[in-house]
Amino acid sequence: MRDVIVITGLAQGMGREVAKILADRSHFIAGFDVDEDGLKTLRDEIAQPNDHHLVTLDITNRPGIRLFANEVLEKYGRVDAVLSNVGIGFFGPFEEVDLEAALKCLEINVIGAATTFQSFIPSMRKRGTGKLIAMSSLVGQIPFPFESIYTASKFALEGLLLAFRYEIEPFGIQVGIIEPSQVSTQFAAKIHKLPPEGSPYRDRVKRFIDRDNELIKTAPTPQDAAHKIVDVIESKKVPLFTRFSGRDTFFITINKWLPAKIRDAILVNFMNIKV
Questions:
Q1: Tens digits of per-residue pLDDT, 119-149?
Q2: Among the CATH numbers 3.40.640.10, 3.30.70.270, 3.40.50.1100, 3.40.50.720, which is that of 4-185+220-256?
Q3: How many CB atoms are closer than 10 A to CB 240?
Q4: Which of 133, 53, 37 is nearest to 85 (CA)?
Q5: CA-to-CA separations, 104 to 100, 101, 138, 186, in angstroms, rounded
Q6: In 3D, which of 216, 176, 204, 175 has the Cα closest to residue 89?
Q7: Alpha helices for the chain (secondary structure H)
Q8: Alpha carbon distance 220, 42 (integer Å)
Q9: Do 184 and 216 meet the contact criterion of CB atoms below 8 Å apart?
Q10: pTM above 0.85, yes or no
Q11: pLDDT at position 244, please?
Q12: How far is CA 213 from CA 68, 92, 160, 207, in A?
């Protein structure tokens, strides 16, 4: 059966690879991204391009998202799954964070996902079936230093889904949260910036960035990650949580069960930021 699958943020990275795999498997893809050029090249690469509905749209444009949802439902008659993939990073010592810029991160990562899901829930509820899947992060469970705003956005995103799933599961709608730690994309490199000379955080931030760059070298590729995401989308029973590695599961487990002092020591040493 050819499912109708909505993907936000599909012009680059994991979202793009997921769209290509699903199109190759003859599913219908409806998606949007602010990157118009990326969408143009995706149309050239995706299987059966005329079967899909790809539009240029900013995730903060809530009326635009609702219009997009109406267009998709009018064109296909239904939506089987929604993958909320849009997200931006945010990095820096909290003391030095620009809170106006932080507000944009929260608007995109949390309210953008909320708007997308909310726009498709009514049609899924009436049909008695559907899947809502969010790309979160390991930091949606484990707070990371120098990523306080990004961590806050992912904690909020996970809290959002974990709360409203109780409301919608009786209508046959499944919820899934995907929590990668790292994927070998330019996502982190775009946000990693050293604090200015004289900042009391500069040395530890540099060590954090260096350690993160080491970890990225062995991280899954967007293609590898995309296959795992597709498995979740196509599964009959969507797992509530999906992680990409045993290491990710290990860290989340010890974060829940170890005493705070031991847990914190492991994180500080793992990221090489011990004072």
A1: 999 999 999 999 999 999 999 999 999 999 9
A2: 3.40.50.720
A3: 12
A4: 133
A5: 7, 5, 21, 20
A6: 216
A7: 13-24, 36-45, 62-76, 99-106, 112-127, 148-168, 187-191, 202-217, 222-234, 246-257, 260-270
A8: 22
A9: yes
A10: yes
A11: 87
A12: 37, 16, 31, 10
Give me the residue spans of the domains in the chain.
Answer: 4-185+220-256
Determine the Cα–Cα distance for residues 111 and 65; give it in Å rounded to an integer.
Answer: 12
DSSP symbol at 107: I
Number of Cβ atoms within 10 Å of the Cβ of 263? 16
* Contact of 232 with 180, CB cutoff 8 Å: no
Cα–Cα dist 115/172, whole Å: 20
